Amino acid sequence: MTTILITGGAGFVGSNFAIYHKTKHAEDTVICLDNLKRRGSELTLKRLKEHSILFVHGDIRNKEDLKFDKKIDVIIECSAEPSVLAGLNESPEYLINTNLMGAINCFECARLNKSKIIFLSTSRVYPYDSISTLPLIETETRFKLDPKVHIQGLSDKGVSEDFDLKGFRTLYGATKLSAEYLALEYAQTYNIPIIINRCGVIAGPWQMGKVDQGVFTLWVARHYYGGTLQYIGFNGEGKQVRDLMHVDDLSRLLEMQIENFEIGKNKIYNVGGGTKVSLSLKETTLLCEKISGKKIKINPVKENRFADLPIYITDATKVNKDYNWTPEKMPEDILKDIYEWIDANKDSLRGILN
Ligand SMILES: NC(=O)c1ccc[n+]([C@@H]2O[C@H](COP(=O)([O-])OP(=O)(O)OC[C@H]3O[C@@H](n4cnc5c(N)ncnc54)[C@H](O)[C@@H]3O)[C@@H](O)[C@H]2O)c1
């Protein structure tokens, strides 16, 4: 019987993984800790309760909130201010105190409990200038990486863990990378097994998508409820591309990592859908129109947004090999799942997603 602490456990990834794990391992104790800062995270509390998951209203910025009666065996650190625009035109205090200082409190909790820890990091640790200046091929619907370009850590599969980290990466990316460095030092100094997953875009039901985070939910929600959207930057044509990964595929990987921790111990993985599970905004629109049967107005905005990228594709070869894991859900499945979730919860989600 294992006790798992999921910080940010009422959030998108945390709550989905908690339910995924508890459904498979009813005998385990799953504790979800969250300060409910993310609008909409309160809606997940009912789901957690229905699955006999314990909820603690706590804040990782506060060490006292990370003390428990039971020994914690595994920590999944999913709490964060996850917006890439966080700290822009505002104080970075909350961002730094949560994503860095709060993460250190979680590592301390791991040290005191001798627990294993999986840290959810981000592809945003890779510098934006190096990625946004890569030569690209432009097709009717998307940008593509030029296969003729040879740069360390880049191939036609996308960005691997060897990509150079020199350069600016946003405050969000910097807090995550700093936390990664501290996590690895904790692992080395205190013998705490740790796995770091640098995730690309994660999508699926229960993501409370907003303009600056959760773009695929935002796109489906606008098509569902009506309203307008914008193709921001890169000539306003919606050709910017991201790979995406269904939260169930990520949950399946987290489960494998918990069960076979030794394989990934003290390693960093790029985790994402890869080229096969990628979409441009323009392609996302076409799929949303197909799924919803609706067409909405999308306004072009020529000017690029701060630190935005024309393309990001995860090269997940390392994690594919180590865990024999590949994403199963394709882009259309992911958007359909989001659509069905919104449809089933249209009244409670209206004020949050609309
Ligand atoms: N969603 C993505 O596309 C994506 C991509 C790459 C990495 N990540 C990382 O994955 C993790 C999970 O992201 P998510 O999409 O579930 O985000 P989310 O915003 O849905 O969930 C994060 C949760 O953390 C909680 N939280 C924020 N500050 C807290 C604090 N100080 N103390 C306790 N709880 C706090 C929020 O209320 C929220 O419920 C984050 O670390 C994020 O950086 C997410």
Please specify the SSE layout and strand pairing.
Blueprint: E1 3-7, H1 12-24, E2 29-34, H2 45-50, E3 54-57, E4 74-77, H3 93-113, E5 116-122, H4 128-132, E6 136-138, E7 143-145, E8 154-155, E9 158-159, H5 170-190, E10 194-199, E11 201-203, H6 215-225, E12 228-232, E13 241-246, H7 247-259, H8 261-264, E14 267-271, E15 278-280, H9 281-292, E16 297-301, E17 311-312, H10 317-323, H11 331-344, H12 346-353
The structure holds nicotinamide-adenine-dinucleotide (NAD).
Count of helical regions:
12
* CATH C-level label of the largest domain: Alpha Beta
The biggest beta sheet reads: 7 strands, parallel
The percentage helix is 25-40%
Total strands: the figure is 17
The parts where pLDDT drops under 50 for at least 5 residues are none
Question: What bound compounds does this protein have?
Answer: nicotinamide-adenine-dinucleotide
* Structural class by secondary-structure content: alpha/beta
Cα Rg: 19 Å
The CATH topology annotation of the largest domain reads as: Rossmann fold
CATH architecture call of the largest domain: 3-Layer(aba) Sandwich
Distance between the termini: 41 Å
The CATH homologous superfamily of the largest domain corresponds to: NAD(P)-binding Rossmann-like Domain
- Overall outline: globular
Which strand order spans the largest sheet, edge to edge or round the barrel?
3-2-1-4-5-10-14
Q: What is the count of distinct domains?
A: 2
Mean pLDDT: 97
Order of helices and strands: EHEHEEHEHEEEEHEEHEEHHEEHEEHHH
Give the strand content: 15-25%
